[in-house]
Protein backbone atom coordinates (compact mmCIF):
# COMPACT_ATOMS: atom_id res chain seq x y z
CA UNK A 1 0.00 0.00 0.00
CA UNK A 2 1.21 3.49 -0.82
CA UNK A 3 1.58 5.42 2.44
CA UNK A 4 2.20 8.81 0.88
CA UNK A 5 -0.35 11.50 1.63
CA UNK A 6 -0.91 14.71 -0.33
CA UNK A 7 -2.10 17.87 1.42
CA UNK A 8 -4.27 20.63 -0.06
CA UNK A 9 -5.00 23.85 1.83
CA UNK A 10 -7.90 25.49 0.02
CA UNK A 11 -8.15 29.19 0.95
CA UNK A 12 -10.42 30.23 -1.93
CA UNK A 13 -13.82 29.59 -0.21
CA UNK A 14 -12.83 31.53 2.92
CA UNK A 15 -11.46 34.75 1.39
CA UNK A 16 -13.94 37.12 3.03
CA UNK A 17 -14.92 35.50 6.33
CA UNK A 18 -12.69 37.77 8.41
CA UNK A 19 -13.87 40.98 6.74
CA UNK A 20 -11.38 43.85 7.27
CA UNK A 21 -8.58 41.47 8.27
CA UNK A 22 -8.65 39.89 4.81
CA UNK A 23 -8.92 43.06 2.71
CA UNK A 24 -5.19 42.91 1.92
CA UNK A 25 -4.32 39.26 2.64
CA UNK A 26 -5.65 35.73 2.39
CA UNK A 27 -7.26 34.12 5.42
CA UNK A 28 -4.20 31.90 5.95
CA UNK A 29 -1.97 34.98 6.23
CA UNK A 30 -3.94 36.59 9.07
CA UNK A 31 -1.57 37.12 12.04
CA UNK A 32 -2.47 35.38 15.29
CA UNK A 33 -1.16 35.75 18.84
CA UNK A 34 1.80 37.94 18.05
CA UNK A 35 4.04 35.70 15.98
CA UNK A 36 1.92 33.13 14.15
CA UNK A 37 -0.37 33.11 11.13
CA UNK A 38 -3.50 30.97 10.84
CA UNK A 39 -1.97 28.74 8.18
CA UNK A 40 0.83 27.72 10.59
CA UNK A 41 -1.52 25.40 12.49
CA UNK A 42 -2.78 23.61 9.38
CA UNK A 43 0.76 23.16 8.05
CA UNK A 44 2.10 21.94 11.40
CA UNK A 45 -0.72 19.40 11.70
CA UNK A 46 -0.14 18.16 8.15
CA UNK A 47 3.60 17.79 8.72
CA UNK A 48 2.93 15.75 11.88
CA UNK A 49 0.40 13.61 9.98
CA UNK A 50 2.87 12.33 7.40
CA UNK A 51 2.16 14.78 4.57
CA UNK A 52 5.22 15.41 2.40
CA UNK A 53 3.79 17.70 -0.28
CA UNK A 54 1.26 20.50 0.30
CA UNK A 55 -0.46 22.61 -2.33
CA UNK A 56 -1.86 25.92 -1.06
CA UNK A 57 -4.70 27.36 -3.18
CA UNK A 58 -3.89 30.90 -2.25
CA UNK A 59 -6.64 33.07 -3.73
CA UNK A 60 -5.84 36.46 -5.22
CA UNK A 61 -4.00 37.92 -2.22
CA UNK A 62 -0.99 35.66 -1.99
CA UNK A 63 2.07 37.94 -1.71
CA UNK A 64 2.39 37.62 2.07
CA UNK A 65 1.93 33.84 1.85
CA UNK A 66 4.83 33.56 -0.60
CA UNK A 67 7.07 35.38 1.85
CA UNK A 68 5.81 33.55 4.93
CA UNK A 69 6.16 30.06 3.43
CA UNK A 70 9.50 30.62 1.69
CA UNK A 71 11.36 28.17 3.98
CA UNK A 72 9.48 24.88 4.26
CA UNK A 73 11.81 23.48 6.93
CA UNK A 74 10.48 25.99 9.45
CA UNK A 75 7.10 24.22 9.29
CA UNK A 76 8.47 20.69 9.68
CA UNK A 77 8.80 19.82 5.99
CA UNK A 78 12.37 18.58 5.97
CA UNK A 79 14.16 16.58 3.29
CA UNK A 80 14.49 16.85 -0.47
CA UNK A 81 11.18 15.09 -1.17
CA UNK A 82 9.03 17.59 0.75
CA UNK A 83 7.43 20.63 -0.85
CA UNK A 84 5.07 23.50 -0.07
CA UNK A 85 3.60 24.93 -3.27
CA UNK A 86 1.78 28.28 -3.09
CA UNK A 87 -0.53 28.07 -6.11
CA UNK A 88 -2.10 31.36 -7.25
CA UNK A 89 -4.90 31.59 -9.82
CA UNK A 90 -3.95 30.63 -13.37
CA UNK A 91 -6.19 31.95 -16.14
CA UNK A 92 -4.07 30.96 -19.16
CA UNK A 93 -6.17 28.02 -20.41
CA UNK A 94 -8.62 29.33 -23.07
CA UNK A 95 -10.64 26.11 -22.88
CA UNK A 96 -11.12 26.36 -19.12
CA UNK A 97 -14.82 26.38 -18.12
CA UNK A 98 -14.25 25.81 -14.39
CA UNK A 99 -15.65 28.23 -11.81
CA UNK A 100 -15.10 29.11 -8.15
CA UNK A 101 -12.54 26.99 -6.33
CA UNK A 102 -12.79 24.41 -9.15
CA UNK A 103 -10.48 26.71 -11.13
CA UNK A 104 -7.69 25.87 -8.71
CA UNK A 105 -8.25 22.13 -8.94
CA UNK A 106 -8.43 22.38 -12.76
CA UNK A 107 -5.51 24.74 -13.35
CA UNK A 108 -3.27 22.91 -10.89
CA UNK A 109 -4.38 19.37 -11.78
CA UNK A 110 -0.72 18.36 -12.13
CA UNK A 111 -0.48 18.53 -8.34
CA UNK A 112 -2.77 15.49 -8.21
CA UNK A 113 -1.53 13.76 -11.36
CA UNK A 114 2.15 13.84 -10.38
CA UNK A 115 1.61 12.85 -6.78
CA UNK A 116 2.30 9.24 -5.84
CA UNK A 117 -0.19 9.53 -2.99
CA UNK A 118 -3.38 7.45 -2.97
CA UNK A 119 -5.11 9.76 -0.49
CA UNK A 120 -5.46 13.53 -0.08
CA UNK A 121 -6.15 15.53 3.06
CA UNK A 122 -8.01 18.77 2.31
CA UNK A 123 -8.29 21.63 4.80
CA UNK A 124 -8.77 25.36 5.11
CA UNK A 125 -7.61 27.63 7.93
CA UNK A 126 -10.94 28.50 9.57
CA UNK A 127 -10.35 25.68 12.04
CA UNK A 128 -7.10 25.37 13.99
CA UNK A 129 -5.90 22.91 16.58
CA UNK A 130 -2.65 21.79 18.14
CA UNK A 131 -3.21 18.22 17.05
CA UNK A 132 -2.48 16.07 14.05
CA UNK A 133 -4.57 13.94 11.77
CA UNK A 134 -2.47 10.77 11.92
CA UNK A 135 -5.22 8.77 13.68
CA UNK A 136 -7.85 10.10 11.27
CA UNK A 137 -5.66 9.09 8.32
CA UNK A 138 -5.10 5.62 9.78
CA UNK A 139 -8.84 5.21 10.40
CA UNK A 140 -9.61 6.33 6.85
CA UNK A 141 -7.14 3.89 5.30
CA UNK A 142 -8.31 0.94 7.38
CA UNK A 143 -11.98 1.60 6.61
CA UNK A 144 -11.44 1.73 2.86
CA UNK A 145 -13.99 4.54 2.65
CA UNK A 146 -14.07 7.11 -0.13
CA UNK A 147 -14.11 10.09 2.26
CA UNK A 148 -13.54 10.50 5.99
CA UNK A 149 -14.61 13.81 7.54
CA UNK A 150 -12.81 15.13 10.62
CA UNK A 151 -15.04 16.46 13.38
CA UNK A 152 -15.34 16.92 17.11
CA UNK A 153 -18.15 16.43 19.58
CA UNK A 154 -18.96 19.16 22.08
CA UNK A 155 -21.47 18.88 24.88
CA UNK A 156 -23.16 21.11 27.39
CA UNK A 157 -23.92 24.69 26.40
CA UNK A 158 -23.21 24.68 22.65
CA UNK A 159 -22.50 28.25 21.44
CA UNK A 160 -24.32 29.40 18.33
CA UNK A 161 -22.11 29.74 15.27
CA UNK A 162 -22.20 29.17 11.50
CA UNK A 163 -19.89 26.15 11.91
CA UNK A 164 -21.36 23.21 9.98
CA UNK A 165 -22.57 20.19 12.01
CA UNK A 166 -22.40 16.52 11.03
CA UNK A 167 -25.33 14.09 10.94
CA UNK A 168 -24.06 10.63 11.77
CA UNK A 169 -25.44 7.13 12.15
CA UNK A 170 -23.14 4.59 13.75
CA UNK A 171 -19.80 5.05 11.99
CA UNK A 172 -21.40 6.54 8.87
CA UNK A 173 -21.78 10.18 7.96
CA UNK A 174 -25.24 10.88 6.55
CA UNK A 175 -25.20 14.62 5.96
CA UNK A 176 -24.52 18.11 7.26
CA UNK A 177 -26.74 20.62 9.02
CA UNK A 178 -26.73 24.07 10.63
CA UNK A 179 -28.93 22.83 13.50
CA UNK A 180 -27.50 24.69 16.51
CA UNK A 181 -28.54 21.93 18.92
CA UNK A 182 -26.23 19.48 17.15
CA UNK A 183 -22.89 19.35 18.97
CA UNK A 184 -21.07 17.27 16.35
CA UNK A 185 -18.99 19.99 14.69
CA UNK A 186 -17.36 19.64 11.29
CA UNK A 187 -13.83 21.03 11.22
CA UNK A 188 -13.70 21.56 7.45
CA UNK A 189 -11.02 18.86 7.15
CA UNK A 190 -11.55 15.67 5.15
CA UNK A 191 -9.43 12.80 3.85
CA UNK A 192 -10.35 11.47 0.43
CA UNK A 193 -9.11 8.89 -2.04
CA UNK A 194 -7.22 10.71 -4.77
CA UNK A 195 -9.13 8.90 -7.53
CA UNK A 196 -12.45 9.92 -5.95
CA UNK A 197 -11.31 13.55 -5.67
CA UNK A 198 -10.31 13.62 -9.33
CA UNK A 199 -13.72 12.25 -10.34
CA UNK A 200 -15.55 14.83 -8.20
CA UNK A 201 -13.51 17.67 -9.68
CA UNK A 202 -14.38 16.53 -13.21
CA UNK A 203 -18.07 16.14 -12.33
CA UNK A 204 -18.19 19.68 -10.91
CA UNK A 205 -16.46 21.21 -13.94
CA UNK A 206 -18.65 19.31 -16.42
CA UNK A 207 -21.79 20.51 -14.60
CA UNK A 208 -20.67 24.15 -14.09
CA UNK A 209 -20.45 23.83 -10.30
CA UNK A 210 -18.59 26.48 -8.32
CA UNK A 211 -17.78 24.90 -4.95
CA UNK A 212 -16.10 21.52 -4.65
CA UNK A 213 -17.29 20.72 -1.13
CA UNK A 214 -20.88 21.98 -1.29
CA UNK A 215 -21.72 21.00 -4.88
CA UNK A 216 -19.43 18.05 -5.50
CA UNK A 217 -19.42 16.37 -2.08
CA UNK A 218 -22.22 17.59 0.17
CA UNK A 219 -24.93 17.51 -2.52
CA UNK A 220 -23.68 14.15 -3.86
CA UNK A 221 -22.99 12.50 -0.52
CA UNK A 222 -25.17 9.45 -1.19
CA UNK A 223 -22.89 8.50 -4.08
CA UNK A 224 -19.90 7.93 -1.80
CA UNK A 225 -18.92 5.70 1.11
CA UNK A 226 -18.41 8.30 3.87
CA UNK A 227 -17.47 8.17 7.52
CA UNK A 228 -16.05 10.44 10.19
CA UNK A 229 -13.28 10.62 12.77
CA UNK A 230 -13.48 12.76 15.89
CA UNK A 231 -10.40 14.54 17.18
CA UNK A 232 -9.86 15.18 20.87
CA UNK A 233 -7.93 18.36 21.54
CA UNK A 234 -8.03 22.12 21.87
CA UNK A 235 -9.78 23.66 18.89
CA UNK A 236 -10.70 27.13 17.66
CA UNK A 237 -12.98 28.22 14.80
CA UNK A 238 -12.72 31.48 12.85
CA UNK A 239 -15.75 32.74 10.96
CA UNK A 240 -15.85 36.49 11.73
CA UNK A 241 -13.76 39.32 13.18
CA UNK A 242 -15.65 38.79 16.44
CA UNK A 243 -14.64 35.11 16.61
CA UNK A 244 -11.02 36.08 15.84
CA UNK A 245 -11.06 38.62 18.67
CA UNK A 246 -12.69 36.20 21.14
CA UNK A 247 -10.26 33.39 20.33
CA UNK A 248 -7.31 35.71 20.87
CA UNK A 249 -8.63 36.88 24.24
CA UNK A 250 -9.21 33.26 25.38
CA UNK A 251 -5.58 32.36 24.76
CA UNK A 252 -4.29 35.15 26.98
CA UNK A 253 -4.86 32.76 29.86
CA UNK A 254 -1.35 31.40 30.54
CA UNK A 255 -2.39 27.76 30.98
CA UNK A 256 -4.53 27.79 27.84
CA UNK A 257 -1.77 29.45 25.84
CA UNK A 258 0.85 26.88 26.84
CA UNK A 259 -1.51 23.98 26.25
CA UNK A 260 -2.51 25.26 22.81
CA UNK A 261 0.90 26.23 21.43
CA UNK A 262 3.15 23.77 23.25
CA UNK A 263 0.74 20.90 24.00
CA UNK A 264 0.92 17.72 21.92
CA UNK A 265 3.23 19.29 19.34
CA UNK A 266 4.86 22.70 19.21
CA UNK A 267 3.23 24.91 16.60
CA UNK A 268 5.82 25.97 14.03
CA UNK A 269 6.08 29.30 12.26
CA UNK A 270 8.49 31.47 10.33
CA UNK A 271 11.58 32.24 12.41
CA UNK A 272 12.20 35.89 13.18
CA UNK A 273 15.50 37.65 13.92
CA UNK A 274 13.93 40.56 15.83
CA UNK A 275 15.66 41.70 19.04
CA UNK A 276 14.08 40.93 22.43
CA UNK A 277 11.26 43.08 23.75
CA UNK A 278 12.46 46.35 25.33
CA UNK A 279 10.61 47.32 28.52
CA UNK A 280 11.52 50.89 29.44
CA UNK A 281 11.26 52.47 32.89
CA UNK A 282 7.64 53.11 33.85
CA UNK A 283 6.20 50.55 31.43
CA UNK A 284 3.95 47.67 32.47
CA UNK A 285 2.46 44.55 30.89
CA UNK A 286 -0.21 42.34 32.46
CA UNK A 287 -1.69 39.11 31.05
CA UNK A 288 -0.51 39.93 27.54
CA UNK A 289 1.45 38.43 24.69
CA UNK A 290 4.27 40.79 23.70
CA UNK A 291 6.36 39.68 20.71
CA UNK A 292 10.02 40.29 19.93
CA UNK A 293 11.00 43.71 18.63
CA UNK A 294 8.40 45.58 20.72
CA UNK A 295 9.42 48.77 22.53
CA UNK A 296 7.15 49.36 25.50
CA UNK A 297 7.07 52.67 27.36
CA UNK A 298 3.37 52.73 28.27
CA UNK A 299 1.06 50.09 29.75
CA UNK A 300 -0.44 46.97 28.17
CA UNK A 301 -3.19 44.84 29.70
CA UNK A 302 -4.96 41.76 28.36
CA UNK A 303 -3.66 42.39 24.84
CA UNK A 304 -1.60 40.92 22.00
CA UNK A 305 1.29 42.93 20.53
CA UNK A 306 2.99 41.66 17.38
CA UNK A 307 6.58 42.31 16.33
CA UNK A 308 8.09 45.81 16.07
CA UNK A 309 5.26 47.64 17.83
CA UNK A 310 6.04 50.84 19.74
CA UNK A 311 3.85 51.93 22.66
CA UNK A 312 4.78 55.44 23.74
CA UNK A 313 5.06 56.88 27.23
CA UNK A 314 1.71 57.22 28.99
CA UNK A 315 -0.11 55.28 26.26
CA UNK A 316 -2.54 52.53 27.29
CA UNK A 317 -3.45 49.40 25.35
CA UNK A 318 -6.24 47.30 26.89
CA UNK A 319 -8.16 44.27 25.56
CA UNK A 320 -6.67 44.90 22.12
CA UNK A 321 -4.78 43.20 19.30
CA UNK A 322 -1.96 45.14 17.66
CA UNK A 323 -0.42 43.83 14.43
CA UNK A 324 3.21 44.32 13.42
CA UNK A 325 4.94 47.67 12.91
CA UNK A 326 2.26 49.78 14.58
CA UNK A 327 3.14 53.04 16.33
CA UNK A 328 1.07 54.13 19.34
CA UNK A 329 2.21 57.58 20.36
CA UNK A 330 2.38 58.95 23.94
CA UNK A 331 -0.90 59.44 25.77
CA UNK A 332 -3.02 57.41 23.35
CA UNK A 333 -5.66 55.07 24.77
CA UNK A 334 -6.86 51.92 22.97
CA UNK A 335 -9.51 49.57 24.31
CA UNK A 336 -11.20 46.67 22.49
CA UNK A 337 -9.35 47.62 19.31
CA UNK A 338 -7.66 45.70 16.48
CA UNK A 339 -4.91 47.63 14.65
CA UNK A 340 -3.81 46.11 11.35
CA UNK A 341 -0.17 46.39 10.25
CA UNK A 342 1.67 49.71 9.94
CA UNK A 343 -0.99 51.79 11.72
CA UNK A 344 -0.03 55.02 13.49
CA UNK A 345 -2.14 56.31 16.37
CA UNK A 346 -1.18 59.90 17.06
CA UNK A 347 -0.54 61.44 20.45
CA UNK A 348 -3.49 61.60 22.85
CA UNK A 349 -5.97 59.81 20.57
CA UNK A 350 -8.60 57.55 22.15
CA UNK A 351 -10.13 54.59 20.33
CA UNK A 352 -12.71 52.37 22.02
CA UNK A 353 -14.71 49.46 20.70
CA UNK A 354 -16.62 46.87 22.71
CA UNK A 355 -16.06 43.23 23.52
CA UNK A 356 -19.02 42.42 21.26
CA UNK A 357 -17.75 44.57 18.39
CA UNK A 358 -14.05 45.48 18.46
CA UNK A 359 -12.99 48.60 16.58
CA UNK A 360 -10.82 47.66 13.57
CA UNK A 361 -8.33 50.10 12.03
CA UNK A 362 -7.29 49.28 8.47
CA UNK A 363 -3.71 48.58 7.41
CA UNK A 364 -1.38 51.61 6.96
CA UNK A 365 -3.91 54.06 8.46
CA UNK A 366 -3.02 57.14 10.52
CA UNK A 367 -5.46 58.33 13.17
TrEMBL record:
CDD domains to which the protein is assigned, alphabetical: LbH_G1P_AT_C
Any one GO molecular-function label of the UniProt entry: glucose-1-phosphate adenylyltransferase activity
GO BP: any one term: glycogen biosynthetic process
Alphabetically ordered keywords of this record: Glycogen biosynthesis, Nucleotidyltransferase, Transferase
UniProt cross-references to InterPro entries, sorted A to Z: ADP-Glc_PPase (IPR011831), GlgDAde_trans (IPR011832), GlmU/GlgC-like_hexapep (IPR056818), NTP_transferase_dom (IPR005835), Nucleotide-diphossugar_trans (IPR029044), Trimer_LpxA-like_sf (IPR011004)
Domain Nucleotidyl transferase, residue spans: 20-153
EC number per UniProt: 2.7.7.27
Top EC category: transferase
Domain of life: Bacteria
A Pfam family the protein falls into: Hexapep_GlmU
Ranges for domain Glucose-1-phosphate adenylyltransferase/Bifunctional protein GlmU-like C-terminal hexapeptide: 282-350
Family: Belongs to the bacterial/plant glucose-1-phosphate adenylyltransferase family.
Listed name of the protein: Glucose-1-phosphate adenylyltransferase subunit GlgD
Native organism taxonomy: Bacteria, Bacillati, Bacillota, Bacilli, Bacillales
Amino acid sequence: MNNELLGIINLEPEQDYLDELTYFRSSGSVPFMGRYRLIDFTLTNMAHSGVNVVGVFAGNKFRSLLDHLSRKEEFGFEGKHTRIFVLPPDWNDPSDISQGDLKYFHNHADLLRRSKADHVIVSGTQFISNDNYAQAVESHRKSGRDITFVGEEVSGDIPESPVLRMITEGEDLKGFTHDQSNGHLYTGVYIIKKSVLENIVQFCIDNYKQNLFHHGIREQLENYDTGFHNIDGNTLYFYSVQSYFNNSMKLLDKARYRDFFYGQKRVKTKISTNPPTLYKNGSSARQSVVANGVTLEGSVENSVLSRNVWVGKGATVKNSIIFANCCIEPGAHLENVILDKDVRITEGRQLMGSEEKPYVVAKRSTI
